[in-house]
């Protein structure tokens, strides 16, 4: 079968990594797992062994046909529910754990879609650089709008870096397994205002923070960060100052 890189079709074949993903997700038979991008079902097999029900969303018709054959027994028992379509468009079923080796080209949109839902735990394979942006704090070169926005919804940790040799075909980039807990790290009253502030700040990283705020008409105590660059402003300060917008 031909795999399309543009669809992020890199199949995880390293069994040790697959087992660890399941362990990180702390699965039990009472769990309902959502997996986006089931591909050839390698991860799906592991998820089915350890959870009560798996909901899979897959866009590629060829994989959907393959999955229907491979898991016909589990489908007949309603232990595997396969949804054919684009995970950014189809309605998501109710689940309490999200475990996926996702297509990297939709990482950001998919993560924010996930964060709109109620869940207990998520274990997600991302491109390494994206994972670093998710967990970054002020002062780090990976710190940006995504790092702060995500903290308004959850706490993220990188569990391990995964080499290209764990996949077929091999991606050109390294990957990282990230665990997300739905526990906000910063208190935000209005996420849209925070987003507005972050877009203004990180569209001009060389600008001093005081100037960014004045350009938005914010008249607030900037807590001594007037002359700092946006990448040095802590997430908590962005959250507080977004209330002045
Ligand atoms: C990185 S592969 C993961 C395959 C498999 N889960 C594994 O771990 O080996 C990504 C999968 O997502 C599918 N995919 C790509 N874009 C998608 C989308 N928008 N919605 C649902 N599935 C998508 C691809 O067809 C591919 O099967």
TrEMBL record:
PANTHER family: DIMETHYLADENOSINE TRANSFERASE (PTHR11727), DIMETHYLADENOSINE TRANSFERASE-RELATED (PTHR11727:SF7)
Keyword hit for Signal: no
Subcellular location: Cytoplasm
Name of the protein in question: Probable ribosomal RNA small subunit methyltransferase A
Physiological role: Specifically dimethylates two adjacent adenosines in the loop of a conserved hairpin near the 3'-end of 16S rRNA in the 30S particle. May play a critical role in biogenesis of 30S subunits.
Enzyme Commission designation: 2.1.1.-
Chief place of localization: cytoplasm
Domain Ribosomal RNA adenine methylase transferase N-terminal residue range list: 17-184
NCBIfam families: ksgA (TIGR00755)
Pfam families, A to Z: RrnaAD
Single annotated GO MF: RNA binding
Family stated for the protein in its record: Belongs to the class I-like SAM-binding methyltransferase superfamily. rRNA adenine N(6)-methyltransferase family. RsmA subfamily.
Binding site for S-adenosyl-L-methionine: 10, 12, 37, 58, 86, 101
Any Gene Ontology CC annotation: cytoplasm
InterPro entries cross-referenced by the UniProt entry: KsgA/Erm (IPR001737), rRNA_Ade_diMease-like_C (IPR023165), rRNA_Ade_Mease_Trfase_CS (IPR020596), rRNA_Ade_methylase_Trfase_N (IPR020598), rRNA_adenine_dimethylase (IPR011530), SAM-dependent_MTases_sf (IPR029063)
Keywords: Cytoplasm, Methyltransferase, RNA-binding, rRNA processing, S-adenosyl-L-methionine, Transferase
Organism: Geoglobus ahangari
């Amino acid at each position: 079968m031909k795999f399309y890189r543009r669809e992020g079709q890199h199949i995880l074949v390293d069994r040790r990594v697959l087992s660890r993903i399941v362990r990180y997700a702390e699965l039990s038979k009472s769990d309902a797992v959502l997996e986006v991008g089931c591909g050839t079902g390698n991860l799906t097999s592991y998820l089915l062994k350890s959870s009560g029900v798996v909901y899979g969303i897959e866009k590629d018709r060829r994989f959907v046909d393959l999955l229907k054959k491979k898991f016909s027994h589990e489908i007949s028992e309603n232990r595997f529910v396969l949804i054919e379509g684009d995970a950014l468009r189809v309605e998501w079923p109710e689940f309490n754990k999200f475990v996926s080796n996702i297509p990297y080209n939709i990482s950001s949109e998919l993560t924010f879609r996930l964060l709109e839902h109620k869940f207990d735990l998520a274990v997600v394979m991302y491109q390494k650089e994206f994972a670093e942006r998710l967990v970054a704090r002020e002062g780090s070169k990976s710190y940006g709008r995504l790092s702060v926005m995500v903290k308004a919804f959850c706490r993220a940790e990188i569990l391990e870096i995964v080499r290209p040799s764990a996949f077929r075909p091999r991606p050109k980039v390294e990957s990282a397994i990230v665990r997300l807990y739905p526990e906000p790290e910063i208190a935000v009253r209005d996420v849209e205002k925070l987003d507005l502030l972050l877009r203004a700040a990180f569209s001009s990283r060389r600008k001093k923070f005081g100037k960014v705020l004045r350009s938005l008409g914010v008249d607030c105590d900037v807590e001594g960060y007037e002359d700092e660059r946006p990448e040095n402003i802590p997430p908590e300060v962005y959250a507080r100052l977004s209330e002045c917008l």
